[in-house]
Amino acid sequence: MGLMLEGAPQLTLETLRALYAYWAGKRAGRALPDRADIDPIEMKAWLGNLMLVERLEGGDYLYRLYGSTFVNQFKVDMTGKRVNELPEKQAELLRSEYDAVVHSGIPMSRRYTATFDYTSRDRRSTWQVERSWERLALPLTAGGAEVKMLLVAAFPLEPAPEDRLS
């Protein structure tokens, strides 16, 4: 039986339900937890699949942390980079999602499917695989009541394809 939480977004993956429970527990009677309440040591189970995103003045977003799973999957490290540095369509989608969470203060989840490039260990063959992910964006304050940061996690809905042996 999976973990069910009152008011939680509809989540398929147990690991994201557990992250939501962690976030909800850090609220400590407040509407939202503060960035200072989040302890990286307590987050080992999610670290490679986490992003910490800061809302900047002017409405853009800065990736303070971009997990190693994303770096490996997307072949780019966005740590220290802004959403507006992404391709326009992707940036618009992410800004819209992040804005909704920032302005509502309500966690948001979504599923998406994308095509990813894979290379064999010996680098002699490449292929593409369509993979579906589930994503959760959680609002955080930063010393006040206003949402200033987002804790975002994404996990594949199915296992990664095996590397080809050739």
Main traits of this protein?
166 residues, 30% strand, Beta-Lactamase, globular
Kindly summarize this structure in a few lines.
By secondary structure, the chain is α+β, with helices and mostly antiparallel strands.
* H/I helix tally: 3
Which regions are unreliable across 5 or more consecutive residues at pLDDT < 50?
Answer: 1-5, 162-166
Please describe the biggest sheet, giving its number of strands, its sense, and whether it closes into a barrel: 5 strands, antiparallel
Report the C-alpha radius of gyration, rounded: 17 Å
How much of the sequence is in beta strands?
Answer: 25-35%
CATH class: Alpha Beta
Number of strands: 5
| Amino- and carboxy-terminal Cα gap | 41 Å
Number of domains: 1
* N-to-C order of helices and strands: HEEHHEEE
Averaging pLDDT over every residue, what do you get?
86
CATH superfamily: PAS domain
Large-scale geometry: globular
Secondary structure class reads alpha+beta
Side by side, the strands of the main sheet go 2-1-5-4-3
Helix fraction bin: 10-25%
What is the architecture at the second tier of CATH? 2-Layer Sandwich
- CATH fold name, please? Beta-Lactamase
